[in-house]
Amino acid sequence: MKRRAPTNKRGVGAAQAEQVRPFVSALGENTTVQRLDLRGNALGNSGVRAVAKALRNNDAIQEADLRDNGPLSSGTALSVYFSMGDRNRRCKLGMLSFDSIVEDAVERCAKQFGIAKDAALAIASADPVMAGLRAMCEDLQSRHFQPAEFARHEELAQRTANRIKFLQYLEAHPEIEEQPLKNPVVIMGLWRTGTTKLFNLMARCTGARSPQLWEIWYPTPPPTRDNYKNDPRIEKARKRCDDMFAIGIMNRSIHDMDAVFPEECMFIMRECHYCLEYLFNQTYPNYLRWLASQDMRDAYRTCRQFYQLLGSKYQPDNHWLLKAPLHLSFMDLMLEEYGQDTKMIFCHRDPVATVGSTLSLYIGIAHSEWDDADRHHNASRFLLNYCIEAWRKAMKKLDEMEAEGRGSQICHVYYNDVMRDPIGTIRAASRELQLPEFDEQPLKDWLEANPKGKHGAHRYTLEQFGVTKADVYRGFAPYYARFFPDVKIELSKL
What we know:
Order of helices and strands: HEHEHEHHHHEHEHHHHHEHEHHEHHHHH
Radius of gyration: 25 Å
Distance between the termini: 53 Å
Structural class: alpha/beta
Helix content: 40-55%
């Protein structure tokens, strides 16, 4: 039977760490209490650290509730995390509350950017996107969310601080939005169709500029051409990236990341609290209700502003090279914001392979974070239908553009060609879209450093997600007819 440690309104002993030491000493000798409830005791960082130290040598306590003890630092959270060991998921610190995230973000604005706290808070309070963050925080406080609080707190607090600085910078430099995106070229297609490999290679082609992960995470002040390759933010981003893999938020065998790898528009939207990928695991009900109420034009406007800011001190020599699978569903908005002359490269792969790999990516991430993810395969079915609908919308838009005589903006490439002869495929696509000739050596260097399967095999089956080949063939029938006419589908035999 679980017992609850006694608490009172005035706190355990007193508010300060040195006055809580007798309790901490007794805690170290405890062998019967299994659940510790110290909510609302104003312990602060030093008091919580003292309790964490006692917990390190006390295996009897399986759960600890340390919420409402004042603003806690990431260092304090790490102390609790390591003290609790395998029990860390059953320790509540309250670091995922909306107030905790915003309060920390305001502190970071003061320390990192020199923004007065009242000014930073005013910017956050006036930002309509904060309603989405509040909804997200409500979801993250669910008992089903598994990762240690400090990891997601760190991510959201820094993201919010960057958002505040981003908005302040745009207001101080309105001229940034007067510069249109320079000759954008956008790679799109469903997930797992070779878009990432194509993106990494084409980002190394002559004249291209793609947003690297470090500048997406730390966009202000805007990077310059002179310091672009040795900016100190690169190492900061590399450590953050390594931490994400270390605690299991990401899996390199599914999607590798590095501070200097180019990253897609979805990453920028996420940094501004437009997290469309949450659609695919269906574990954020409050956030998804908020997202459904939003005009996605705002998300695309934010992306365009982001690229304008990044390019304000370092423009591409010839063109922006961008990428995101989600653009299939929002081509009209993308063209409105990026420019009607945007050139597009569509990547194609047999949907049976594509859908299975996509489900493994997003449902796998969901399972690593939520203990109730994809029950009854509802999220898997949603994602399958989303992919089907995305290409239905995209094919309609392609028909419209071709009817308008804009076919020269469109290029199609196939996964098998990208895997078999990536440089030849890129050269053909570049000629079709009239992009500059390029030196092959940087591309060869990347291919040598990043062979297929570098981080292990990515194994999956459709059936493990409650989806069959017949489901895919049936839903993608128009797509197969247009882009894979040689594939003969006999549903009666499946």
